Every structure is written in structure tokens, then in C-alpha cells.
Amino acid sequence: MIEMRGLTKRYGSFTAVDSIDLTVPQGELFGFLGPNGAGKTTTLRMIAGILQPTAGSVRIGGLDIAADPVGAKTKLGFIPDRPFIYEKLTGAEFLRFVAGLFGQAGADVEHRARELMALFDLEEWRDELVESYSHGMRQKLIVSSAFVHRPDVIVVDEPHVGLDPKSIKILRDLFKEYTRRGHTIMMSTHTLEAAESLCDRIAIIHAGRIAACGTMDELRAGAASGGRGLEEIFLKLTGQNAARDLMDVLDA
Predict the structure, then answer these.
(1) Rounded distance, CA 210 to CA 201, Å?
(2) Residue 189 domain-assigned?
(3) Closest CA to 156 of 48, 4, 26, 3
(4) Are 178 and 131 in contact (CB under 8 A)?
(5) How are beta strands 29-33 and 184-188 bridged, if at all?
(6) What is the CB-side half-sphere exposure of residue 55 using CA atoms within 13 A?
(7) Residue 145 domain-assigned?
(8) Of the chain's two ends, which shows fewer C-beta atoms within 10 Å, N or C?
(9) Please, which residues bridge with residue 129 across strands?
(10) Rounded CA gap, 165 and 116, in Å?
(11) Count of structural domains, the chain
(12) pLDDT digits 0-9 by tens, 30-71
């Protein structure tokens, strides 16, 4: 479970995230959407403990990440929007290193790492240095590292970047199965089709505030959009009119 209460991040006079209250329960695949600069990545980094909030709190599995950062982070896996990996490690060494950060080692970890690398077609590269990996391969390794210690909660920022269609399908199936088994995933993405088809509930953030939150039916009702899809709801709630903007550009 993820709980945010009054979560706020300011940079001087600019408020990037403004008093967010959200709860993502156990076993839910939760979508977190918004336009560029809305505060998505800032929020996810505060949940992961990378950024310190200006105000408010985050609890992971009941543990306050400020009061008990080590305990809270042992329950967490994080997939960032830009993969960072130690390039002088092999893929297998990197997964072993990440598992070790969470106090896990031995045959179970080795077996889990092999399974994850095989799932994402990285098995033949397991003993190659990461510096030789393509961007997509690095992304798949980062995804694998978030699952290797079997955390209760996984926070994901733009998981599809750099992945080929086969890997995207595998990742979506993995997300669905992981939450089916009682784990929690909070995912930020610009791929609205993926959010609509995958997520149990969705929150839309705009200018640092939650504009709407709920199931697709609840979002439709709140946006008075009838049977429309997520794209129309998103554009309506974030005040964007792509057709009008396009005509303005072409007429300029």
C-alpha cells in the first residue's frame, strides 16, 4: 500500500506538487497521468525517497519513509524514466548487487535473476558488461532489478521508453500478474491506451494538483464525458485542446 497525505514539493516560489492526498491499496495497478511538468515524476521520486517533500508524508506498507527510510525502502522497487546502471558490471552482477542492497543473496536470488533475464531475452547477455547494452536492454535490466527482490510495492515512471513491442507486452503481463498476486504498482505513463487497459484506477495530475481520481467509469462521470475514452477525459481535465492548437499553428 502507498499512502500520501498533504504531499507537497516546492522549489522556491514554485509549487511542483501541491498537497496531494492519495491511497493506492494492496493489489492495485494504479495509473498516474498528467501533461509534461504536471508533477508526476516529482511525486514518484518523493514516494521512492529520492526527493524529500517540503511538506506532507508518504507511507509504504504502513511505514513512513521519512521516519523509517530503510524499512520503507525494503518494501519498494523503483523503475525510473531514465535508467542508470553501473556500466562496469555485467547484467547478472548488477541484479546480484541490487538484491544485495535489500539483504538478499544466494541460490534463490540467482534463480530469480536468471528467470527475469530470460523473460526479457537478456540471458545470453548476462555475463556481458552493461556498457555494451543498448538503451532498450538497459531498460529491461532496470525493470528486472525492480522485481528481483520481490518488493511489496513497485513505483514506475514511464516504463515503455526504449522497449520493443514484444517487451512491452511482456511487461504489461508481468504488471498484471504481480498485482493479481497481491502486490501494488503505481505507474506513470504518457501511453493512455496502456493506462486505460491496464489500470484498476487512475489519477490525473495537473499543475501539481489531482484533477480527478477513480475508475474509468468514475472518471467519465466526473468529466461528464459519457462513453468517451481516456484521451478525451485527459484533454478535458487538463484544459488542452489539441485540434485548436494545431489549427492555430497552421494558421499562424
Answers:
(1) 13
(2) no
(3) 48
(4) no
(5) parallel
(6) 11
(7) yes
(8) C
(9) 90
(10) 17
(11) 1
(12) 999 999 999 999 999 999 999 999 999 999 999 999 999 999
Longest Cα pair distance anywhere in the chain, in angstroms? 64
Q: In this structure, how many other beta carbons lie within 10 angstroms of the beta carbon of residue 129? A: 15
Burial class (CB in 10 A: 0-12, 13-18, 19+), 106: exposed
Distance CA 18, CA 7 (A): 7
What domain range includes position 128?
76-150
pLDDT of residue 250: 60
96-148 pLDDT per residue, tens: 999 999 999 999 999 999 999 999 999 999 999 999 999 999 999 999 999 99
Q: Which pairs count as long-range contacts for 59-68, CB under 8 Å and 24+ apart, including other chains?
A: 59/1, 59/2, 59/3, 59/5, 60/1, 60/2, 60/152, 60/153, 61/1, 61/152, 61/153, 62/1
Assigned domain for 84 exists: yes
Whole-number Å distance between alpha carbons of 15 and 139: 30
Where do we find the cell 475514452? 229
- State pTM to two decimals: 0.89
In order of 2, 25, 69, 97, 118, the CA distances from 147 in angstroms are 17, 19, 19, 13, 14
Q: How far apart are CA 218 and CA 31, in angstroms?
A: 14
List the grid coordinates of 76: 519498494
Which residues touch 126 (CB under 8 Å, ≥6 apart)?
90, 91, 92, 113, 114, 117
109's CB contacts (< 8 A; 6+ apart) are: 95, 96, 99, 148, 149
Helix H or strand E segment including 115: helix 107-119
Residue 123 lies in a domain: yes
